[in-house]
Write a structure and sequence with these properties.
By secondary structure, the chain is α+β, with helices and mostly antiparallel strands. Helices cover 30% and strands 24% of the residues.
Length: 244
């Protein structure tokens, strides 16, 4: 098979819930960040993977995942200020390998703030078999033809993931207590320890959820977030502003 420019078609579920199959280059302007997944997320006793739905602060909707690793990557994309749209299992890629037709459903389609798009496949390095490697390479080539980015990602950094997982508990707008938020912005205009600043801003029951929500929004920043677990002495500062 010629992997340099394989003939690729996409099948997907359109806005009126009808299945479509079209050549790749006829689909490059489609808003795949808004489509319905092309296959269901199933839960079965004894399965090694764990599927589910995650409420995304980016989209305001639930996005599916088929494993904990996909869920972890979804958390990180939801936290990424450059990501403005996410869809899971957006389409099937169809191609012929010289012997039979093959297909692959990438894990995520992502729309970025500058209008560009990326396709994301999630698979741990040690779990990539030859047929998976071929599917990822065909996907990479197809995305290049379409003008989309492509990335195959594995296990994320554990410290960053732990911090984002904690902050994700406070991602919902209900955590945005207005009075506490205004005080936190004032307090952290001068960088200082997380817990000291929360106490200075008011009662912890109000200020801590708002503080974590502002960290989620990137209105507040913790410079050591990728390398050190959040704690009472984490230095927090005012950042450039909300992206959501």
């Amino acid at each position: 098979m010629d992997l340099a420019r394989p003939h690729v078609e996409l099948s997907y579920v359109d806005a009126v819930h009808e299945r479509r199959r079209r050549p790749l280059l006829e689909c490059v302007t489609a808003r795949f960040e808004d489509v319905t997944p092309v296959r269901p997320f199933r839960w079965s006793r004894g399965e090694r993977h764990f599927a589910g739905w995650y409420w995304s602060a980016t989209t305001g909707q639930h996005v599916g995942f088929e494993s904990w690793l996909e869920r972890d990557r979804l958390l990180l994309m939801d936290f990424d200020s450059e990501v403005v749209g996410i869809a899971s299992q957006p389409f099937w890629l169809h191609w012929h390998d010289g012997e039979r037709e093959r297909r692959h459903a990438p894990d995520y389609f992502v729309r970025l703030a500058d209008g560009s798009a990326a396709v994301i496949d999630v698979r741990a390095d040690e779990r990539i078999e030859p047929k998976d490697a071929e599917a990822f390479e065909v996907t990479r080539t197809a995305c290049s033809q379409a003008g989309w980015g492509f990335e195959r990602v594995g296990t994320p950094d554990p410290v960053l993931l732990a911090n984002v997982r904690w902050l994700s508990r406070y991602r919902h707008p209900r955590c945005l207590h207005r009075t506490a938020t205004d005080r936190l912005r004032e307090v952290f205009a001068t960088p200082g320890p997380l817990l000291t600043g929360a106490d200075t801003a008011g009662e912890r029951l109000a200020t801590l959820p708002a503080l974590f929500h502002l960290l989620w929004l990137r209105e507040l920043a913790a410079d050591d977030l990728p390398v050190e677990l959040l704690g009472p002495r984490t230095v927090v500062r005012l950042a450039g502003g909300s992206t959501r």
